[in-house]
Amino acid sequence: MKSYPIILIVLIIFFGLSSCISIKKYNEQRTTCISPDQMKEDVDFSYSKLKEMHPQLYWYISKEELDFKFDSLKRTIKEPLTPIQFYFKLQPVITSIREGHLALRIPRKKFTKKEIKALEHKKGIFSRFEYYIKDDHLYIIKNNDSIENIKPGTEILSINDIPVSEYIKKYKKLINSDGLNTTFQPYFLKDVFFNFYTAEYGVNEKATIKTLYDHEKKIYTLKREAKSEEDLKKDKAQEKRTAERKINDYVPLSDSYNRSFKFLDSDKTIAYIKVKSFSQDYSSTFYKETFSKIKTANSSYLIIDIRNNYGGSLYEINNLYSYLTSEPFSLIKPSQVTSISTPLKTNYFRKSNPFQYIFKSLLYPTYFFAQSFSTYKKDGSVYYKMRADKPTKPNKDAFQGKIFVLINGGSFSASSIITAKLKHDKRVVLIGEETGGANDGTVAGFYSYQKLPHSKINLPIGLLLVKPNIQFSNTKRGVIPDIAITESMQDIIENKDPQLDWVINEIEGEKKAKQFPPTSKDL
């Protein structure tokens, strides 16, 4: 019995060393050039896997056009490239499919646990700012640490002597929304800009930026500073999972909550729910408690804010919808897959350490049995069984008043699914911008993670065609708001919210009209 701890220690050391060797091998491969023939094989592999598993590959691009793009790409590959250089050639072709969920994973450098711990004890260079992108311009809109006293509204003209416009033009080609709308790209690009940058240039200790503010140009050298003891204590405190943090889905990285609720007036007639991500974690408890409070307060108006919400759980939006309707409903149509074997292509053992691999192996027969009976055929197509396409009853605390929903280009995936359904059922007034996700559905659900044979780049392929249960618009666009109101950079800097302000003013106008109805003389 006493030998078990020793064996366990030996195994931990063994697997730790194996992990370090694996990381070293990966990083070496990442900087090693691949031959043109090998890259062309990776191109063919990518396209063949997309045709095999993607259930709506030619939704926004014809087969002839996509064939041409892949063939043209292969003709441009004439010299050896590193995996990351190859990524910047292949990803724009993947982007042309115009499916926002479909993207190669950029081959970033991997770090050992020791290196990760060292980085955790330092502040980031670029992550301490918040950004805004318009056209080919990048602006700082928030400087929480007052670094170099850089003012909100400052434009970054160059990074390490390379114009920012060049980065933006290059990185724009790597991302896309669902379909033909253009609202998603600036929202998503501002969030991933420095992910692309650090993948391309590494995690460095300093960077030089040239800026423009109020017609004055300045040069700053940003450095990766060590965190103070107070910073480290704050990091540790943020990791604690209190009951409130669980229910509101606390995010330590941003020191904020994914879900929040409040009344916007003293008499509690206006309820406000903000959801930054449909993460599902403790969401049932959140909505149960929230709508109980709204019902008790007898609120007349509800505002749901899903701006900058990139989506998430179908279960959560199905549950949320049950609080917004008085009739039984089916949120989505049956979800199509390419074949009955598709559910078994989801990389069951992906990212499993040796211990998890052993545990999952024991459970695999159950998983295999469940997935094997998870599909059915109808009218010549194959569908995956989903709870969200079954009839759902309205919740007993369902809101019966007037509902406003705030949307913008950052409303994507599940946010667009629920928005499209609410608009179709005439349950809400939509305020803001066209959503970044498509009105008529998307391809996501769960993924098959394919690794390209030579470059080792990962290609996650969505396996489910998920469509809201509506009459489709067939416009290849996002969900269009009833009232179009945009938010400027200056609005954000000054903490103004023209979209929410419009709703509040509309509600106040309705309240006054009810309080002082027009008399026969007025008419």
Automatic annotation (TrEMBL):
InterPro entries: ClpP/crotonase-like_dom_sf, Tail-specific_protease. SMART domains: TSPc. Residues 215-486 form the Tail specific protease domain. GO terms for molecular function: endopeptidase activity; serine-type peptidase activity. One of its GO terms (biological process) is proteolysis. This is Tail specific protease domain-containing protein. It comes from Chryseobacterium fistulae.
